[in-house]
Amino acid sequence: MSLRLLLSATLATLVLLLGQGASAQSRIKDITDFEGIRDNLLVGYGLVVGLDGTGDDLGSAVFTRESLIGMLQRLGVNARSDDLDTKNVAAVMVTANLPPFSRQGSRIDINVSALGDSTSLMGGTLLVTPLLGADGEVYAVAQGSLAVAGFKATGKAASITRGVATSARIANGAIVEREVGFELNQLTSVNVTLRNPDLTTAKRIADGINQRLNLPIARLVDPGTVQVKVPANYPGDTVALLTEIEQIPIKVDQPARVVIDESSGVIVMGDKVRISQVAIAQGNLTIRITESQGVSQPNAFSQTGTTTTTNSTNIQVDDSNNRRLATLPAGVTLQQLVDGLNALGVGPRDMITILQAIKAAGALQAEIEVM
Question: Could you tell me the Gene Ontology terms of the biological process aspect for this record (predicted)?
Fold first, then answer.
């Protein structure tokens, strides 16, 4: 199968999948977030020990040296000396997500990243590290052996690197010490927030909730928020109400948008994209010049002439005369647009330029977003 046919088949499959997804329904649970049910970000600074000579250079990483001295002094060891030198310690930043309604004593996963000039965290152990929230309070404490997925090996003539050896993870590496106070059942109303704000989708969510519960409890606040009042038959049981709401199927409305990633040549178009009547021609003048050298020498037993080199030039001109002007009628769908561009033999890079030109001509009834 040629590259052009493969590209056409791939784009046709993508269009088919987009068309199927547009007519499907999604649960409210999958397209919204409920007020108060959210993660909280935690961060901390700590030390990793036990490295095999791949830690920070205490001469250049001053923060690692001072942290190591401070830790040893808290343990009763006087380490204030100019001779302190080790390559088995590394300063790291520890991050974690505190899930909603986490209770004291529960465990969460943590990520560890080198802060200094350490080359690898493999084999290291994270010492006790407090994890702080945005308010400066300690919500968890982390410690444990690191699991490093990447590695780096270097020899005299070659080296190999796989993944990132200066990042690691500890499953269940932190214990929750403080709970985030939030009483969901005490709420008299709950805000349902759309992950992709849209007026039509928000209105459908409000209507769907009112129809399912047969009560006018949901109202549209803005394109990204639907406010739901807790009805009288759900007092103190907001969790049961939200469980009922999140299972309601909703048809999500999509704006007409074309997303272009110029660095990789990826184009994603929604099924609402429409094209007004426009004519498209695509083709470039290509001149290919090939130089080659030959050898000219006299015939055998000839008394005259010398052996010399000769130059040969081959010039080929491709004016793409097999590509013709194509006309797209008004109201063209996404499938027809892709088929028309593929018929012209247009690749992803050229297709980006054509779409931008159609938009500039005012014939593309959609928003173009360049990543």
Answer: bacterial-type flagellum-dependent cell motility
